[in-house]
What does this fold into?
Amino acid sequence: MKKILLVFLVAFIMIQFFPIDKTNPPVNAGMDFLKIKNTPVPVSKIIATSCYDCHSNETKYPWYSSIAPSSWFLKNHVDEGRKHLNFSIFATYEPERQIHKMEECIEMIEKKEMPLESYYIGHQDAKLNDRQRADLIRYFKREVEETKIKNAIK
It folds into this structure.
């Protein structure tokens, strides 16, 4: 039993020598969703608190991001989140893609699939109550309609 524990301890120590890259890509405020959509402050705060760690280039890595293997899980999660939707480069999306992404936001919020339950472990402030969910859904629906009108999309 002692040998098994020793092997696990040595393995745990060894994997600490493979840290994740916590460097965020540069942020250009002119391409950021909250800026280009002129998001009202109350809604902006909800989105920044509940979405931006995984869906922007403004990730704030928590203390456990320095401990493998949790750091590897976290890094993969952030990379996947940015790949699916990155609010920091939202202005680079074509209008149809912007609409699609906002409609996906609506769907994920309605189904309570975002933010992820696992995110709440270290971020209780990101947990959305019913009013916040309703506010976000209403906001994204309005932005979808405004984007369609602005770009003459049906």
Summary: The radius of gyration is 19 Å.
